[in-house]
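Lab notebook, entry 374. We have the chain sequence and a SMILES string for zinc ion, and the next step in the workflow is to get a structural model of the bound complex before anyone spends time on docking refinements. Request logged below.

Task: model protein plus zinc ion, output structure tokens.
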Amino acid sequence: MSEIATNIAVKLIQRESVTPADGGCQNYLASLLAPLGFVRTEVDAGDVTNSIYTRMGELGGTLAFAGHTDVVPTGPVDKWAHAPFSGDILDGILYGRGAQDMKGAIACWVAAVANLCADYTPLPTIQLLITSDEEGESIDGTIRIIEHMQAKGVLPDAAIVGEPSCSEKVGDTIRRGRRGAVQVRAVFHGKQGHSAYPQDADNAIHHAAPALARIAAIDWGSPADGFPPTSCQITNVNGGTGATNVIPGLCEAVIDIRYNPGNNFDGIKAMIEAACSDCDVTLAFEHAAMAFSTADGPFLDLVCDSIKAVTGIDTVRDTGGGTSDGRFLAAAGVPVAELGTTNSTIHQVGEQVAVDELATLTAIYTDIIKNFEG
Ligand SMILES: [Zn+2]
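Result returned:
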């Protein structure tokens, strides 16, 4: 069982696919999935290769696996003991960019389905939602797949996202939600002048400082269940010409807000605007990622039960980390659990995964698919 997953992971790693390139990964996946009864729907957008692979089930319900074939750049290639696109295996460790994030998990899911099909196990409808635009802007990736599925009325009943969710061992952590992100650029306006003639000037920093203090002191309320509190960090403040005797006419600040689902973009915007209401300020808001959360219920229980059955581990249902494509599925109302390999070397020089992990993850995915009831 593990051999199939490992072989697929090696072949995916050997296909160089730095965002947004796909490097032939999807054609390779299609060649594996077609004999298993999957039909490929291409939803390409811009430079990005997106595919929905669907295998109609013998049973009711639809379970999706969402993943990305793109990887982040390698960094200095000479620092890699094994070339980043070699897929070398040594002493039970598979080396290469994407081993953990997340070609390994894609390989495990395909291997799980292949094994179940080989056993003639009746299955629910299974979809693989694969993009080559997750590590970049994520503008033409999974979101386009979800739009297409919404238009066709083929959204799944639940989805596993194969992001590397685990810390020490496969199965120790799943993510059932993520915080959202809002970035604000604030430009405070005054009037430049000579510091000995303050009556002829208006100090922009004197407007910015109290407003930024009010922003830093905003009470964001208590966090949604299981989430860390909303964090609002002023990450940049720039004002002044460098001269000691010039009153600055402009002061610019950047604010980075990571919010839990107890807050939302409109509410955050209103609170920042209120804190700046007495200033001449230009505020530019970017909703970089929407927060999402999958409630405790049968789907998360199934995932945790499968992990327990295979590994004996009591899984942590976590909400930490940055953003992921799970947000697009959750926004469409699909329950999402992120479950992949460990994440100890993601985006690092020398990314690697233990072959044993791939075997364990394949077994967990197999159990989830077998026991899924839509
Ligand atoms: Zn990833």
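Notes for the group: Residues 68, 101-102, 134, 163 surround zinc ion (CB under 6 Å). Worth checking against the assay data. Residues 355-371 form the longest helix (17 residues).
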